[in-house]
Amino acid sequence: MMEFGMIGLGRMGGNMTRRLLKGGHRAVVWNKSPEPAQELAQAGAIPAATLEEFVSKLTTPRAIWMMIPAGEATQSTINHLVPLLNPGDLIIDGGNSNYKDSMARAETLASHGLHFVDVGTSGGIWGLTEGYSMMVGGSAEAVGRIRPILETLAPAPDQGWGHVGPSGSGHFVKMVHNGIEYGLMQAYAEGFEIMRAKEEFGLNLHQIAELWRFGSVVRSWLLDLTANALKDDPELSDIKGWVADSGEGRWTVAEAIDQDVPAPVITLSLMMRFVSRQDDSYSAKLLAAMRNQFGGHAVKRE
């Protein structure tokens, strides 16, 4: 069993800590707001009130896992940690950081004698019970040190995780993973909308999702979740059609452009998320106005 520290006890970070505690590991935890740390203390974690106390409660060489938002939050936390740590200590970023930032952080931390591992983590709210998929980047030495906690977090010790390459590669693979996810989700969404529009057949969308889950070539965990969503409210009457993006879809499209790789499905699925946020599309209005100008086609007025 292994001792680790967890920074960031939101839903995912908290659940990962709970899974590790159940696996017999020792955890020291810190969160910006203290309540999640106190809750995890009930499960056996050791809470800390400050980052200084958090570091002091970990034995060296330390392994510190961060599950906090990408960007400034991650960078400022690392900046705060560095002077508190000793050479040989290890920082793991399990959030959705840009892989280029992770490459730079690994280099900077190495200059202080510190190790860095980037872990692209997938599993969402189901990871606590089902396990997490983890795409791991870093040196073989650093990844080997944290193998016990990776094996506990994964669906099985030899499944769902892997050392994919050097620093930055874990977050790079997770970035592409999320780009693919965008495309899969968009395809399901469009297909179900086409079936819903065929009113004369009166199709039961939940029934169709359930039958596709078994034996079909389009079966997947995303389809399982789609069936769950359609079970109680096939019309999704309580949900607004506004879809956020975490940023990784954008990075995937940008990388495709940089590498001269055609990625029309992923790119268009990202654009459709932007469309979902428009209450009123100016470009659609302009299209209607142009059709009216050149062909006299009717326009609908507000």
Annotation keywords:
50% helix; 14 helices; single chain; 302 residues; eight-stranded mixed β-sheet; globular; alpha/beta
Walkthrough of the structure:
- With 302 residues, the chain is an alpha/beta fold.
- 50% of the residues lie in helices and 13% in strands.
- It is built from 14 helices and eight strands.
- Strands 3-2-1-4-5-6-7-8 form an eight-stranded mixed sheet, with helices on both faces.
- β5, α5 and β6 form a beta-alpha-beta unit.
- α9 crosses α12 and α9 crosses α13.
- It is globular and about 75 Å long.
Average pLDDT figure: 95
Annotation, overall tally of beta strands? 8
Largest sheet: 8 strands, mixed
Overall spatial form: globular
Strand order of the largest sheet: 3-2-1-4-5-6-7-8
Low-confidence stretches: none
What Rg do the Cα atoms give? 23 Å
How does the helix and strand content classify structurally?
alpha/beta
Oligomer: single chain
Q: Could you give the order of the helices and strands?
A: EHEHEHEHEHEHEHHEHHHHHH
Q: Approximately how much helix is present in the residues?
A: 40-55%
Distance separating the two termini? 65 Å
